Amino acid sequence: MPLNLPEGKSLAVNIGADFDAHSVWMGTFNLSSPSYLSRGEFCAEVGVPRLISLFERHEVRATWCTPGHTMVTFPERVRQIVDAGHEIAAHGCYHEGVPKLDADTERRLMEAQLAQHERYIGVRPRGYRSPAWDFTDQTMSVLEENGFVWDSSLMGRDFEPYHPRPVQVGWEEGSTFGPPSPLLEFPVSWFLDDFPAAEYIPGVNQGLGSSEVMFQRWKDHFDYAYRNVPGGVLTLTVHPQTIARAHYLMGFERLIEYMAGHAGTWFAPLSDIYDTWTED
User: Fold this and answer.
1) Closest CA to 65 of 277, 193, 239
2) Is pLDDT of 1 > 90?
3) Which pLDDT tens digit goes with each residue over 241-267?
4) Neighbour count for residue 88 (Cβ, 10 Å)
5) 195 near 28, Cβ under 8 Å?
6) CA atoms of 61 and 178, how far apart (whole Å)
7) By C-alpha distance, which of 132, 127, 134 is closest to 113?
8) Residue among 270, 256, 265, 274 nearest 218 (CA)
9) What does residue 271 show for φ and ψ, rounded to 5 degrees?
10) pTM score > 0.85 for this model?
11) 214 — phi, psi (to 5°)?
12) Any idea of the CA torsion for 25, 27, 33, 38, to the nearest 10 degrees?
């Protein structure tokens, strides 16, 4: 079902900047040496200002998916993002591994991160992106209970928002779907994420990939959606510590210029895109 985009717009493009800073190393990878924390510091002190400047030059409003830990550690950078007119979305408490959480812990960490949003942003977030894009069986219910209207963690479509359904896994008899969630899902993809292609983690992720290959892949996704999915949405995921490195940033700016050069491209935060959705 297409979005009802503003007049003259045919494809929504969201840039989701995951402002993980220290938390991705601590939470997802259990790494907290000075070397890894310095990469998180680069994210906040170098990457964020570079991305804000880039977005300002091209009149792009983005969604910054930000763990609570980042808000507490780098509050001045979070305020800079908000003052620049961007959206802040929920992205975990400390980039925790969600599938490993028991139900009580998951709800406790959700309460903690929402309290951090209220303290540092002044409002509760409308949307959520799971750290490392994974859920438990109760995550969808937790999001619904806490008033979220959209999620951007799942991969059941590519260029069309949809209502995700819980799955009861069956082996010999096949899996069955439950009723659709009222949450609207803005689908993501590892193909449209800079981290696995670029970020080097010894023994974990090779990274160090070609910037030209990554941006050609993103351009191909844009071209397909622009030509074949009118009223659709392209959801890109970038990380300030990654995309703001010099060679990637130059390629990213060329990509933004290319997409902006197509009539009807609308760069917008996910909540603004959500507001164009109607069920009929």
Assistant:
1) 239
2) no
3) 999 999 999 999 999 999 999 999 999
4) 24
5) no
6) 35
7) 127
8) 256
9) -65, -35
10) yes
11) -60, -45
12) 40
